[in-house]
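In this section we walk through a basic example: taking a raw amino acid sequence and producing a predicted 3D structure, encoded as discrete structure tokens. The instruction is simple. Fold the sequence below.
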Amino acid sequence: MGIAEFIDLLLLGLLIVCALGVAMLRDLVAAVIMFSIYSFILCLLWAIRGAPDVAMTEAAVGAGITAVLFLTTIAVVGRREKK
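The resulting token sequence is shown next.
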């Protein structure tokens, strides 16, 4: 296994950890931050795969605009999930 495959597997493992983190977190701001990290890791994967246009779109929409919209919504509805 070469270094490229190792990096791919490492990033895919981090994606799984981030996805589970988003699903398990009760603090919504922390979940948004974890989702942004997920999006940046996915952006790295797209860039490594040779799709810089998709990577830039993922970074702008996935981590940028979506995070701002989620944080604005959380400011209106509250930070903690009800039990």
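Looking at the output, two observations stand out. Residues 19 and 31 are 10 Å apart (CA to CA). The chain has one domain: 3-77. In the next section we compare this with other chains.
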